[in-house]
């Protein structure tokens, strides 16, 4: 999820997000579609509503091949075919640090760029992760909070996450929606998510909810396979020089 808040320059880039529950959670069986949408406010914001019946995703749930389909960040939306492939840093410890690996194309160029960092589950707040980039992004930090997760009206899983402003790039706080399919959520589920966010008790969330735009998912990576590993070269993030402002 996320990406994008940290690296944005001319084209804006991405970083992502992610998370694993900070403590064990029961597996909640959610229904699908708009009536099953449950969201909380970011727990770190003052006056945040905990969300009725909200539960964090089950351990390991987040480790899936995600596509960013809706974002409040209009610059990040210009990145093409944004994917996020989180994995645990230590395979046997799905609640520990997470490899935060995103990949995307830019307008008029089919080269696939990657952005890597490590996200550490926050020890105070459940389903909140503290991200830090590596290599040229070593000073880029952001905090991600899971706001919601479930499956849409077509039965495909999705999640909604909030990320704090990134001081390094002057990027504002924002909210992203990720789906297992690049065509995104059914309209009714999307509408329900946005409507709930617009009614948040927190003014920042209400304002962010007015600014959603679809990410560009144009099929330009179909058949290419996911990027799930980041070697030492990848971790330098140096291919982003010239891409991020
Ligand atoms: C796409 O971007 C890569 C990396 O910056 C660059 O080497 C390549 O020349 C670009 N291709 C086009 C068609 O602009
Ligand atoms: C956990 O989140 C709180 C609130 O944003 C923050 O102050 C704290 O530094 C975070 N903990 C870590 C270890 O990053
Ligand atoms: C990160 O910040 C430190 C301390 O300000 C600085 O020495 C270092 O060069 C920065 N790293 C990058 C990649 O900008």
Automatic annotation (TrEMBL):
Residues 1-22 form the signal peptide. Keywords: Signal. This is Uncharacterized protein. It comes from Paraconiothyrium brasiliense.
């Amino acid at each position: 999820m996320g990406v994008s808040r940290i690296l944005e320059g001319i084209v804006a880039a991405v970083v992502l997000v992610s998370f694993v529950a900070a403590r064990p959670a029961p597996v909640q069986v959610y229904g699908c579609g708009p009536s099953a949408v449950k969201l909380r406010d970011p727990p770190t914001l003052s006056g945040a509503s905990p969300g009725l019946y909200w539960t964090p995703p089950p351990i390991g749930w987040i480790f899936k091949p995600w596509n960013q389909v809706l974002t409040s960040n209009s610059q990040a939306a210009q990145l093409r075919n944004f994917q996020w492939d989180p994995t645990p840093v230590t395979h046997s410890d799905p609640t520990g640090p997470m490899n935060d690996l995103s990949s995307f194309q830019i307008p008029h160029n089919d080269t696939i760029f990657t952005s890597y960092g490590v996200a550490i589950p926050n020890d105070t707040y459940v389903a909140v992760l503290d991200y830090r980039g590596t290599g040229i992004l070593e000073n880029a930090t952001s905090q991600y909070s899971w706001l919601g997760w479930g499956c849409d009206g077509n039965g495909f899983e999705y999640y909604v996450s909030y990320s704090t402003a990134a001081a390094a790039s002057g990027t504002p706080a924002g909210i992203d929606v990720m789906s297992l399919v690049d065509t995104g959520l059914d309209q009714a589920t999307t509408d329900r998510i946005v409507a709930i966010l617009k009614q948040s008790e927190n003014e920042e969330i209400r304002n962010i909810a007015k600014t959603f735009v679809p990410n560009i998912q144009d099929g330009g990576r179909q058949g290419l396979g996911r990027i799930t590993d980041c070697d030492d070269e990848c971790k330098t993030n140096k291919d982003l020089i010239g891409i991020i402002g």
